[in-house]
Amino acid sequence: MAKHKAEATPAPGRYPVSNGEVELLRDLDRPSGWLLSMAGVPQSYVDLDDPTYLEFEYVRLMADAVDALAEGPLDAVHVGAGACTLPRYVAATRPGSRHIVIEPDEALVRLVRDQLRLRSVPRLKVRVGDGRTAAGGLRDASADLFVLDAFTGAVMPLELATAEYMADVARVLKDSGTLLVNIADGKGLAFARRVVATVRDRFRHVALLAEPGILRGRRFGNLIVIASPAPLPLPRLTRKAAGGLTQARCVHDEALVNFVAGAAPIKDGDAVLAPVPPPELFH
Questions:
Q1: What is the dihedral of CA 241, 183, 100, 140, to 10 degrees?
Q2: Which of 181, 264, 266, 267 could form a disulfide with 148 if both were Cys (CB 3.0 to 4.6 A apart)?
Q3: What mean pLDDT is predicted for residues 229-243?
Q4: pTM score of the predicted model
Q5: Structural domain of residue 125, as residue ranges?
Q6: Between the CA of residue 197 and those of 35, 106, 277, what are the distances in Å?
Q7: Is residue 31 part of a domain?
């Protein structure tokens, strides 16, 4: 089958986007693997020939959470998908899924379409806009899966971590729908505790996936929150987290209450600083 023009070989180099400049780098170990980074911070990794290959540990944890859900296609919303690694994975592993991707950087969207074959992902639509405003335009009870993986550089936008935004996410999710939130935090995990408290304030069923060292606050890294109005598949989540390439713990119920440790939910206007990773993390 002849390739579409948009599926030409990507060109490594630096590209201007709305928020500065991104760099597209070829993976020397995987001919079809490409890394998208900004200011030295890795943003996305995609394997154009194998969308089920996931390079980043936190993306593997999100994929584990998706794999633990009931079989079948999903109606998914992705806020801040970068090069659309997870939408590609879900499209490959759950044929028939539909995706709405919300991304504020129009130039980045064009780059991913032109260089990283985004048009080849079936049933995917991109809405250019900020995650707060664009989510407000989504229909009630329309999503099986809502993925919040939005970062400005290496920092999570605070307006996407508040109780008011979580209320809007809950409106968009179906009664059996699932929310995934990617948080980055380090020593003390003060920000992660407040985000988890915010999610728990809105959703009845919540769990947390992370590597033990990150959970103990020993090093900066990613934690994945899973939430739903309906009971979560905790046994499957626990097995997948412990048995995958990324050895992680699944924290839930009383252990999650202990993790939150009385932290207050984040509300619009609260003076909260999202953590910035140490400079040496990406070197």
A1: 100
A2: 181
A3: 94
A4: 0.94
A5: 52-274
A6: 33, 33, 22
A7: no
